[in-house]
Write a structure and sequence with these properties.
3-stranded antiparallel beta sheet, 53% helix, alpha+beta, 16 helices, Alpha-Beta Plaits, 3 domains, 5-stranded mixed beta sheet
């Protein structure tokens, strides 16, 4: 076992560290109602945070719960939200302090909610494996963890963290946040996405020791396995389910699938992969075409494109760069024009930036 790390809490009791974390946490959302006042009085909030951390008096706030419909997974999710200060700042400080420790043992193909490790990374891995190793990728398995965030045991998680970190003050603060989630981990907490990824680290290492598993990727709790033998993948699937249950207290979803990649495309991170090409998943494509039609309808009626529509469509158009999509671009994107969409976003961004500058300067927005 690697040497455990200590003195992480001491890193947090530093005004320069606190200032840097607040500025980093506020990037891209500086005009938010609960963030703008903190930035307007940065020195004062740095001092308040310092006193809070130095006296070990931080108590997690009661989260506000908001239910949303997640279109990508077609599920209703309960999002828990806490104020930017002190909760958000403390969570960012904890993650910043322990990030090197978490990254040290992380599997290279464990992705999601980690800078530089998004869906694009898994996209390249699966596409490359299918194209370059036909014999080693004859079969694919798609596995998922049932109710992952709510099912995580706080005590198991903190014990797993204690095997890497020996700072008791630091662990106490992390555990107080885990306890405030009200069972499992909270969707919406910055620290929880890091802890959720860390909790499956033993599973990642175990999967790669199983015979018949040549390639493995994990996007949070969605696991994709590739191998040359169907029977071995079935055995691996059973062993993975047993490991989840016995070691992690989790259960595998019943909708697992194992199939030949020659007859069916591998589905992951919003795309479908074959040996020769990559396409969008059907429901992602349908959402994209509907959004294009709505924007085109406004243009034809002589109405301006709304900022939300332009930014959303640009985001979906960006997905087309990573798949075979020439015909789709010609049919749906070219009649609208990417330059037009970018102009809408650029003008609105400038307007918001000017309003924020007036607010911070004490003027009326």
């Amino acid at each position: 076992m690697p040497k455990r790390v200590g003195y992480l809490y001491d890193k947090m009791v530093d005004r320069d560290f606190i200032r840097a974390v607040i500025q980093e946490a506020a990037k891209g959302r500086r005009s938010r109602k609960d963030i703008a006042p903190v930035l307007a009085d940065l020195d004062g909030y740095v001092e308040k945070t310092y006193e809070l951390v130095a006296s070990e008096s931080f108590v997690p706030s009661e989260p506000k719960i908001r239910e949303i419909y997640d279109e990508s997974s077609e599920k209703h999710r309960k999002i828990k939200m806490v104020p930017f200060w002190p909760d958000g700042v403390i969570q960012w400080m904890l993650v910043t302090a322990m990030k090197p420790v978490l990254m040290r043992g992380m599997h290279p193909w464990s992705c999601a909610s980690i800078p530089g490790r998004g869906g694009k990374r898994i996209h390249k891995k699966i596409r490359g494996a299918l194209r370059n190793d036909p014999k080693g990728t004859k079969y694919a398995a798609e596995l998922d963890v049932a109710q992952y965030y709510p099912s995580i045991s706080g005590k198991r998680l903190i014990w797993a963290l204690a095997r890497k970190i020996k700072d008791k003050r630091f662990l106490r603060t992390v555990y107080s946040i885990i306890e405030s989630c009200g069972g499992g981990l909270a969707i919406g907490y910055y620290i929880c996405q890091w802890l959720a990824n860390f909790y499956l680290e033993p599973l990642d290492r175990y999967i790669m020791t199983l015979p018949g598993v040549k390639y493995m990727t994990r996007y949070m709790d969605n696991i994709t396995l590739l191998g040359p033998n169907k029977k071995q993948l079935h055995k691996a699937r059973k062993l993975v389910a047993a490991f989840m249950q016995q070691r992690l207290g989790l259960s595998m979803k019943a909708n697992w699938q194992i199939y030949p990649t020659a007859k069916r495309m591998v589905s992951a991170v919003g795309y479908r992969f074959s040996r020769t090409h990559v396409i969008l998943r059907k429901r992602n494509f349908l959402r994209f075409t509907r959004q294009c039609r709505r924007v085109k309808k406004r243009l034809d009626a002589g109405k301006p494109i709304m900022f939300a529509q332009a930014s959303g469509l640009l985001s979906r158009a960006g997905q087309l760069k990573h798949c075979n999509s020439h015909t789709i671009r010609v049919k749906y994107i070219d009649p609208i024009g990417v330059k037009h969409l970018k102009e809408v976003v650029r003008n609105e961004s400038k307007r918001r930036q000017r309003a924020q500058q007036r607010f911070l300067a004490g003027g009326a927005a």
